[in-house]
Amino acid sequence: MRAMRHFSVKLNDGHSMPILGFGTSAPTKVAKSKVEEALERAIDIGYRHIDSAYIYLNEEEIGRAIRKKIASGTVKRDDIFYTSKVLCRVAYLWSTFSRPELVQTSLEMSLKKLQLSYVDLFLIHFPIALKPGEEILPKDTDGKLISDTVDLCTTWEALEKCKEAGLAKSIGVSNFNVKQLEMILNKPGLKYKPVCNQVECHLYLNQSKLLNFCKSKDIVLTAYGALGSDPEKEWVTKNYPVILEDPVLNAIAEKHQRTAAQVALRYQLQRGLVVLAKSFTEKRIRENFQVFDFQLTPEDMETLDGLNRNLRYFKNTYDSEDSSVTIEIGEIDMSGTNSDEVVGSGAFCPGEFLYLAHSPCSAHVCLTAYNTGNENLLCLRMG
Ligand SMILES: NC(=O)c1ccc[n+]([C@@H]2O[C@H](COP(=O)([O-])OP(=O)(O)OC[C@H]3O[C@@H](n4cnc5c(N)ncnc54)[C@H](OP(=O)(O)O)[C@@H]3O)[C@@H](O)[C@H]2O)c1
């Protein structure tokens, strides 16, 4: 792994992961050809860690860009660290109909699109599952996503099989909270621990508790949305504070003669996270890679820690109305409930704030527990 050899972290299964990753998820209106061009530039610049997922619907273009760079001699396959993620509804199908081969099917579908023989990392994308069907995102007649129950432990066992089959070098999770991680770690007969947990993490949601937990278990925490993501994305809340415009961040950037984006990324690296950064703009792809040649001071780090406000940009909701509500998550009794409309999911913690798109006709929004069969997933119900 030539360009990034010095900038990798050793995973708990012995493999290495470059600590800066190239994000590839873009708003649906962006032409898929953009990711191909951007990834080719990124590989030229030195990125070796590429993050995608079946659901981004760009693995064909990504595979083409990687194969082009291999053919031109820029990289070898084993220089590249490629991450994909299981399709939620396949996990569901597998769980409900006891068809473990369907998790592997999701991975094989990715590999077919990529035209690669393995991925370096395969993740459970969300600790929720969607109703099976033809559509990738099954929706009801009101356009709402249809979710259902899944046993995360059996899904994990299917990932272990993918690793043993040589289709994924490493396996991990995404959007898991401490309880969900503990469930996997405490699973009887666990063969492989997750190597990482990929979650939303940035200056306004620094995930310090989850980070400490992951460090104590030798699980890498990978940050997505580290630059504040893109409000053009369907899943990202609009009208929230913009990280890269934060005056404190910009003052530190100016002091180091760096950009706000470089400091936002460097902050995560110095905390021991792996960080993802998406840009399809050549100048920014280059800029985001220049984060290995400067150091934030302990005082800078402390000041940046102080910016945390438990603000979550990703609502994982299907409700795209512009008006929004803010909810502080409290302690919730998660026993014996069912949800009808899940509008949020992820590694939520009590005390966090959620900004949600809110339909004006909804009288109220309430937190409820979504009974996953594991009694550990916080979700929200619009009422
Ligand atoms: N596991 C999950 O559930 C999950 C969820 C979300 C994301 N992810 C992964 O994490 C990656 C990163 O997250 P993300 O794409 O949501 O957000 P992000 O990397 O925080 O931000 C991307 C946005 O920042 C802009 N940007 C990039 N560099 C910049 C710079 N130097 N200065 C100013 N603006 C800059 C980009 O615009 P331009 O492209 O126009 O430059 C884009 O609008 C994704 O691409 C995906 O691979 C995973």
UniProtKB/TrEMBL annotation:
Keywords: NADP, Oxidoreductase. Residues 20-308 form the NADP-dependent oxidoreductase domain. One of its GO terms (molecular function) is oxidoreductase activity. InterPro entries: AKR, AKR1C, Aldo/ket_reductase_CS, NAD(P)_OxRdtase_dom_sf, NADP_OxRdtase_dom. It comes from the Eukaryota. The keyword Oxidoreductase applies. Belongs to the aldo/keto reductase family. This is NADP-dependent oxidoreductase domain-containing protein. The lineage of its organism: Eukaryota, Metazoa, Chordata, Craniata, Vertebrata.
